[in-house]
Structures are given as C-alpha cells and as structure tokens.
Amino acid sequence: MPIPYSEIRSLTQDSPLIDLFILDLINGETHRFCNEAAADGGALFLSGVPYYPLPVVIEGFGQNNTGAPQRPTISISNVSRELLSLVVSYGDMVGSTISRIRIFAKNLDGGSSPDPDQIFGPEKYLITKKIVHNHTMIQWEIAAPFDRPNTKLPIRQALRDPTSNSKGFPGLARRIR
After folding, report:
1. What is the pLDDT of residues 43-85, one digit of tens each?
2. What secondary structure letter does DSSP report for 14?
3. Strand pairing partners for 123?
4. Considering the domain boundaries, does residue 50 fall inside one?
5. Which residues share a beta bridge with 167?
C-alpha cells in the first residue's frame, strides 16, 4: 500500500529515509548494499534479505519534463577493494542494472513497524560508463533504461496500411462518439 503524501513529511522527522541498492550484473549475479549500517555495524534487512553497508554517494537523481533525461552518478568507496574484482571481471560493469529502493528506517526488518511494502521505487538504472577509478573510489554514470543510444520510443514502429480505408492506420476506422 503506498504511503499517503500527508504522512511523508512527518515520517522523515521520525524515521530517516534509507536508500537500498541492488546491483544486477550482466551474468545474473546480484549484490545488495546500502549507505547505512545497523546498530551493530552489520547489514540492514528488508524481507529477510541483507543489504551490506558500503559507503555510497549518489548525485543527480531527479526528474524533469524538458530536455534530456537526468544522468546521475554513483560513487562507491574503493578503499576496501570490495568491488574491484567485479569491475575488472565484468568490463567496468557497463550494461549492469542498478536499482534504488527508498524506505523509511522504521519499515525495515527490526524497525519499529516493519513493513516491506512501504517502499518508494524501485528505480532502475543502467550503468553506462565508468568515470573515475582510483584508490579511494569508483564512480559511474547511470541512465534510465530508455535513455540508451540509438533507442527510440516506441521501439515498435506504427506503419501505414495502404489497403485500409481508415487513412492507413489500424484503429482509426472506429469512430469515437
């Protein structure tokens, strides 16, 4: 059940909004992480699934109605070298999918009122290119799935049918009354 907008403002004061990330690699392997840690320093849980703490900085998320779609960036700490083998093995992880789920801390497992259905998202993005890779961080540019080179919406073209007497397009023969 979605959260009513009137409750969102009061909830952010009582319970922080947590970003959970799911990284789906090209080979089907999945990694789950978040920017927060549990009170004991371990993973956060949503529906019994662990999301491991990993320092993450996201910038540029947003929506606009004009111009090009947003191209946010995601930066992940490389100090512990946790993702280094994945970056090397999977070609900078370009083409992998990253999903962001937002949930109030109180709705996580172990929260004051656990409810895994009270989420915002998931928002899905594709990793389009690696921007920075050094000893302290790895940064990627991500894009919405429909924001790919040489992709047009709709993907299927509507072609004219010259034999139709409805000016060539199916569905136009019916009249709206």
Report:
1. 899 989 999 998 888 888 666 666 666 788 989 888 777 778 8
2. H
3. 100
4. yes
5. none
